[in-house]
């Protein structure tokens, strides 16, 4: 806990500084951000313009133009607004993870270069290799997240579910510096065992931040930078 209190505010300030002072880092962060905004604008158009127009035409053809038609239309629209909040919250990290995979790996590599750290065995993967690696990671995280969700419905399972979800957030972002440095499974497991509490607490903070609409747009690239700096710091690298 003491290490978390010492490191978190320091590394968060460092991450913000890196994001807004290095033009390469800023560019790598903004490209997936713009892609994410375009994606959600398109999804919003499909859900709240095209689909609602289709729904209105269907209800009018079956129910006419009376009060029942209007009631059905507004009930469905209200349900869509509520459900879309959870859909967007659930899909945001996953979709941005896939879209931003190459940029986030390059972003992490850039931060490692700036901070003078790393394992000394950095690797460079191609665009499609990075996307494929991200897809595999996302599938594993989705499976584990579903497991955490099921645990939440068990008696006294909610705290365990939150602990697992927070830890998964950390693993998701730590995977970028791990991949860039080409760490082995043995090195990763050793690192996780030695820093479990810090990674859980950091994951809990970012888990809550990423659940907030609009804020999560900027938190994703910031989290990549933060976890890269954190991984270097906890492994006694110079940052």
Protein topology:
Blueprint lengths: L1 H20 L1 H41 L3 H49 L11 H26 L5 H24 L3 H10 L1 H15 L4 H20 L5
Question: Rg from C-alpha positions?
Answer: 21 Å
Q: What's the mean pLDDT score?
A: 77
Uncertain segments are none
Please count the beta strands (DSSP E, at least 2 residues each): 0
Portion of residues within helices: over 70%
- The succession of helices and strands, N to C, reads HHHHHHHH
* Distance, first to last CA: 21 Å
Helix/strand class: mainly alpha
Count every helix, treating DSSP H or I runs of 4 or more residues as helices: 8
Strand content: under 5%
Shape: elongated
What's the main sheet like?
none
Structure description:
With 239 residues, the chain is mainly α. The protein has a domain at 2-22 and 94-234. 86% of the residues lie in helices and 0% in strands. It is built from eight helices and no strands. The protein has helices at 2-21, 23-63, 67-115, 127-152, 158-181, 185-194, 196-210, 215-234. Helix 2 (23-63) packs antiparallel against helix 8 (215-234). The longest helix has 49 residues, at 67-115. It is elongated. The two termini are 21 Å apart. The relative contact order is 0.15.
Summarize this, please?
This protein is mainly α and 239 residues long.
Q: Key features?
A:
239 residues; mainly alpha; 86% helix; 0% strand; elongated
């Amino acid at each position: 806990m003491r290490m978390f209190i010492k490191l978190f505010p320091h590394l968060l300030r460092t991450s913000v500084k890196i994001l807004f002072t290095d033009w390469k880092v800023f560019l790598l962060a903004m490209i997936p951000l713009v892609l994410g905004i375009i994606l959600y604008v398109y999804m919003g158009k499909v859900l709240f313009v095209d689909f609602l127009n289709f729904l209105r035409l269907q209800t009018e053809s079956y129910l006419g133009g009376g009060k029942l038609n209007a009631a059905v239309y507004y009930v469905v629209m209200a349900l869509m607004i509520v459900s879309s909040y959870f859909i967007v919250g659930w899909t945001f990290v996953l979709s941005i993870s896939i879209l931003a995979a190459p940029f986030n790996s390059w972003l992490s590599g850039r931060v490692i270069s700036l901070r003078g750290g790393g394992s000394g065995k950095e690797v460079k993967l191609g665009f499609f290799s990075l996307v494929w690696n991200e897809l595999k990671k996302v599938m594993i995280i989705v499976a584990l997240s579903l497991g955490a969700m099921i645990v939440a419905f068990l008696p006294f399972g909610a705290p365990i579910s939150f602990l697992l979800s927070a830890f998964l957030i950390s693993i998701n972002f730590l995977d970028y510096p791990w991949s860039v440095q080409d760490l082995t499974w043995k090195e990763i497991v050793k690192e996780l065992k030695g820093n479990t509490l810090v990674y859980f607490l950091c994951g809990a903070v970012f888990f809550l931040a990423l659940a907030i609409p609009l804020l999560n747009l900027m938190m994703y690239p910031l989290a990549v930078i933060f976890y890269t700096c954190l991984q270097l710091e906890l492994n006694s690298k110079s940052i």
